[in-house]
Amino acid sequence: MMYSRTLFTHTLFGILCLLTILLANSVQAAPGHRLGYNTSGMHQLASSNPFIDIFKVSRGWITSCRFDWQKNRAIDPGCTKKNSFNTKESEKVSVDANGWPTRLPARAERPIFTSINAIWDMPADFPVGRHFVTYRGDADIEIQGDVEIIRQVPGRIDFNLRSAKRSLRLHITRINPRNYIRDIKVIPQKYANIYKKQTINPEYLRSVRPFNAIRFMPWQNTKDTNLSRWKDRSTLRSAFYNHDAGVPIEAMIDLANAANASPWFSIPHKATDRFVQNFAYTVKKRLKHNQKVYVEYSNEIWNNMYPATHYAAKMGLKLWPRGKLKIKNPHTRRLFLALNYNAKRSKEICSIFKRNLGNRAVCVVSAYGSAPQMGEELMTCPLAGGDCYKHFDAYAVAPYFGDYIARIENRNLVKRWARQGNRGMSLLFKEILYGGLAKANYQGGAIKNAIEDRVKKNVDLARKYGVKLLAYEGGQHLLRVDRPHVIYDPKIFSFFADANLDPRMGTAYSKYLHAWHRAGGDMLMHFNGISAITDRNYFPMLPRAGTRTPKYNAMINYLRGR
């Protein structure tokens, strides 16, 4: 009897401890407060650092040649000071099906390059310390950069990365074609015991685990990819992921599994039905939990900056050369052809995903938030058979705030703020929160404008057609890269970068997210997740995994209902 009571007491205590640990390590989500994030872009993979094996986020094979800088003469024919570090002949590197180099050019061959490099674009605060390289094959290889080589034997190099001042470089000068170099891994020493079983960087995972969903559009290289056939995709065996096909589907699913988050996929605009079927089947088989799976055709098929919009317009014209659209302007007509093709292709993709995943598949279409007539065209799709909304589960927009502040008509105002230190920063946030300073007709400030112009009208549209309103991207937008609003002034760059790390940005985000929720928005996917802040990227919630920012803290508090 005493043994049973003791056993019961210990069992109960163990259950209570487990529950305490689970509660302590989870974000207690508030009802309806759902947030996700977009991954960083392909060029930011090294700064977001999502994988334990950092070789996967290198730039790929960069070709180089030998030049004697002291004697100012070429060692290799055709080599110059200008091209010695990059002869720009990457397409001439002989590789196997997974991208591993099988040989270097023979002396009699035409290419200028005689060696190849894997190079990392590392931010200044990239994690330093002990690392090791492992590989298979016979080759001459060395690690360059601000490094200290600790030990080097065939198949392994141990080194200490002292800083990111000089780009880390893995330099290969000889390859035995009969036993070529392959399966290269670059692993931080602190993960030596887990890298064979776990692929996701634990620090990255801890930072993103609180979020409900992950939109993989940037990792899929959706804006630029020409991927159409399943056989041309990246796989986990690919040498690196920084190329046209983007990050492997399996790696994206593995992150969703580890974070227990819903994946949001953007299907390449040229993808065949067979590609979509294989994609959906892979998700069904590999995704562990019972998460929803958001699926969208490409990205921003209304934005003329992207090839997908031109492709959709071309396909629309091919399908409906005499389509009855009451539009005379040729540019607008092409846009509405693209929207109708978007609706048609979205229906087809949704059908394939629904067959594989049932109601777990959430079919999303999106358009420009300030033009609800685009959403209306997607829902009604008069050229694509009509009533496409019956096949969709959600409509999405990008309700960014603050983009008008960086317009050219406000440039002199922002320049003055940038020179005024904290007073200038206070004035910027006064405009964001309350308005009245910038040249715009936005009473109430940037956040109120975003809600009025890009949310409320689209909430009404979504309700009209019985779908949810999501935000495929969102957050602050103190950046312009569109003419004539492009920013070149480094003081303005610095000013906006500082604003994104200012405590008042946390206040702005709290106001923004709660306003989105009150207006009727469902899940908002922040753009973007983790990446370095640069003069072309003020968007991240975190500049590096394992850190905290006021912006990020506001997002976590929103998830908790605070």
List descriptors:
562 residues, alpha/beta, TIM Barrel, eight-stranded parallel sheet, four-stranded antiparallel sheet, 20 strands, globular
CATH architecture of the largest domain: Alpha-Beta Barrel
Helix content: 25-40%
The top-level CATH class of the largest domain is: Alpha Beta
Overall pLDDT metric: 92
Count of individual beta strands: 20
* Number of structurally distinct domains: 2
Supply the helix-strand structural class: alpha/beta
Largest sheet, in brief, is:
8 strands, parallel
Describe what you observe in this structure.
The protein has 562 residues and is an alpha/beta fold. It has two domains: 35-43 and 201-401 and 446-559, Alpha-Beta Barrel (TIM Barrel), CATH 3.20.20; 55-191, no CATH class. The protein is built from 14 helices and 20 strands. The chain has helices at 2-24, 45-48, 202-208, 249-259, 273-286, 307-319, 330-357, 372-380, 411-419, 421-433, 446-464, 490-501, 503-519, 550-559; strands spanning 35-38, 61-64, 67-68, 73-74, 94-95, 101-103, 115-119, 129-136, 139-144, 147-153, 156-161, 169-175, 182-188, 213-215, 262-267, 293-297, 361-366, 394-397, 468-471, 524-526. The strands form five sheets. Strands 19-18-17-16-15-14-1-20 form an eight-stranded parallel beta sheet. A four-stranded antiparallel beta sheet has the order 2-7-12-9, with no helix packed on it. Strands 10-11-8-13 form a four-stranded antiparallel beta sheet, with no helix packed on it. α9 (411-419) crosses α12 (490-501) and α11 runs parallel beside α13 (503-519). The longest helix has 28 residues, at 330-357. The chain is globular, with a radius of gyration of 26 Å. The two termini are 48 Å apart. Residues 1-26 have low confidence and may be disordered.
